[in-house]
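Need the bound structure for manganese (II) ion, inputs here:
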Amino acid sequence: MALKDYEFWFVVGSQFLYGPEVLEIVAARAQEMVDELNNSGALPCKIVYKVTAKTNKEISDVVREANFDKKCAGIITWCHTFSPSKMWINGFASLQKPYCHLATQYNKEIPNEEIDMDFMNLNQAAHGDREHGFIAARLRMPRKIIAGYWKDESVRARLGDWMRAAVGVAFSKELSVMRFGDNMREVAVTEGDKVEVQSKLGWQVNTWAVGDLVKEMDAVTEAEIDALIEIYKENYDIATDNIDAIRYQAKEEIAIKKMLDRENCKAFSNTFQDLYGMEQLPGLASQHLMALGYGYGGEGDWKVAAMTAIIKAMGEGKPGGTSFMEDYTYHLVDGNKLSLGAHMLEVCPSLAAGKPRIETHHLGIGMNEKDPARLVFEGKEGKAIVVSLIDMGGRLRLICQDIECVKPVMEMPNLPVARVMWKAEPSLETGLECWITAGGAHHTVLTHDVTSEQMRDFAKMMDIEFVHIDKNTTQESLEKELFFADVAWKLKGV
Ligand code: MN
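Answer from helper R.:
Posting the output first, comments after.
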C-alpha cells in the first residue's frame, strides 16, 4: 500500500451529560475539522471521522474495527467536551494501532461577549484532554501527544509527520526481506535475532540462493535489458564505454526485482563474499532499485536493508532522499571537521546533488570477475539524520544522530563511488564518542526526508529503545541514559 492509501480514524470523546444538542454540535464540528484538515493539503493521508464516543461499548467497538482494518494506520483522539476516561479503558487496553492524542480546541479565541456557562460546557478541551491523557498514562500506552490549535500550520505539520511514522509502523509489520547469501564473515553488528525482530517489528527475514538469482538472470531477455537501459539513459549520464557492464547490471536489476516482487519483498541484502555465478557485484542495479523504493543493505546487513525500506516508505513523495550509507573516513581539519560517507558501490541516487554518472571501475574486494558499473555523484546539502538499528541481546536499540550534509569540500576525482559529506552533531568528536558509546553501526540509513522526532515516534510505537544524539548530547549524559535504560529494559522484560 502507498502512503495515500492509508487512513487515520478520528475518535472524539464525550458523554451523555450535556444532552443531544451539544453532542450534535460536537459531531458536526469534528466532521468540519476533519474535512478542513483533509482539504488543507498538509497531511499525507486521509483522516476519517468515526464517532463521538459516549460509552465503553462505542470505544471498544471502534478500536476492534481499527485493529482489523488494513487501511487504518492509527487512531487520533480528542475531547471537545469532558469524556470520563474509565469508559476508555477496555478499548485502549485492546488497541493494536498507533495512537495520537490531539490536544486541541475548536475555537481559537475566548469570546469576550459570548462566553457564559453554556459556552464553557461545550468548549472544555482544556480539562477534557487532561482526563483523557491521564488514562493513557495510567495504562502506560505508547502515544503521540500533539498540543496546539488545529488550524496552525505547525500543528498540521507535526500531525502529518506522525502519520508518516505510523505508516512506517504499518509498512514494517508487513515487510519481507530477501537475503542473498549470509552476512559478511565475522562481522558482529550486522548479526541479529530474526525471531525477536519479527515479533517486535514484523519483518519476515529469509534467505534465497544466489544460484536461483543467477538462473533468474539467465532468463532475462535482451529486450528487457534494452528497456531498462533507456530508463538509465533518461536519468543518468553514461560516462563509460563499457556498455556490456551496464547491460550486465541491468540484467541483475531485472532478475533481483522479479524475485523481490514475486515474494512480495521490499528490501534485500547481498554480500560480495557470495556472488557465485555472477560477474559483478550489483552496483548500479542496487542503486536503481533503491531509487525505486526498495531497501538495500550491503554485506548481508538485513537490518539496515529493512530500515532503508521503512524510512523510504515514511518519506514517500518528499524531495530529499534516503539511502543505505556507510561511515568511511574523516576530514579532521580544525574548524571544518567532516565525515565522508560512501559505500563500495551502493548509495541511492535520491541523495544526488546533480545528475549521477554511470562509470565502471575495478573493484578489488569480493568475487568480481569484471569491473562493475555504478552511479557516481556528490550528495546534496541540507539537514539530515543517520539511523542505525542494533541488536543488544534481548532488545533492539534504534540510534539516531542529527547531521548536516555539505557540499564535499574537495573533488576527489579518483574516488570511484558516490560520496556524501556531513557535519555531525554536536561535533565530530563528541558525536563519534556518543555513537560508539551507544554501539551504533558503521552502516546507517541517511535521510533528508524523515526527522529524529519521527524516528522517536516509530521506536515508541514499536516498543524498542531509542537513542538520539543531537546538538545537546554529551557523552556523560548519554552514558547515564544508557545505564538507566539498560536496567529499565531488563526490568521491563522482553
Ligand atoms: Mn559496508
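Comments: Residues 176-491 form one domain. The chain has a mean pLDDT of 97.
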